[in-house]
Amino acid sequence: MIERRSERVTAALAALRERGERVTPGRSAVLEVVDSSAEHLDAESIATAVARRVPGVHRATIYRSLTSLSELGILTHTHVPGSATIYHLAPAGESHGHTHLQCTSCERFFDLPVSELEQLRESVRERAGFEIDPRHAALLGTCEECAQDQQA
């Protein structure tokens, strides 16, 4: 069965080629796995899925691909407190993206447009002279469902 690549993966591979970067089976598989998942995947989950998809790709190649694709801006990554870094395919032409919220009770992730944090970013910039990058780390808190459970 031949899988058809998504437009996002096709655009990411084209961006690699435009920059003179190699498009390898490992890089392609990493991009396809990350793009096809609705979950927030860490490196280990990506490596396991790539190994199922392309059995000949060495695990070290997958980890190197995650690093190089992140450095090139093709993938974005978010550090999660107390957990592994998660990866996303960077939307083509989108510089703002989203930030991650993680519930400390149920550990689920929620995506929030970065623009929702603009007022906080401006306040921190003015008061502390500090520029927050809300795409790089997850913000911790309690989701509505867990908050209701705790009140009950």
Automatic annotation (TrEMBL):
Matches recorded under SUPFAM superfamilies: Winged helix' DNA-binding domain
User: Is DNA-binding among the key words of this record?
Assistant: yes
One short Pfam name that applies is FUR
Superkingdom to which the source organism belongs: Bacteria
Keywords noted in UniProt: DNA-binding, Repressor, Transcription, Transcription regulation, Zinc
Q: What InterPro entries does the record tag this protein with?
A: FUR, Fur_C, WH-like_DNA-bd_sf, WH_DNA-bd_sf
Q: Does the keyword Cell membrane apply?
A: no
Q: What family does this chain come from, according to its entry?
A: Belongs to the Fur family.
Spell out the protein name for this chain: Transcriptional repressor
Species in which this protein is naturally found: Barrientosiimonas endolithica
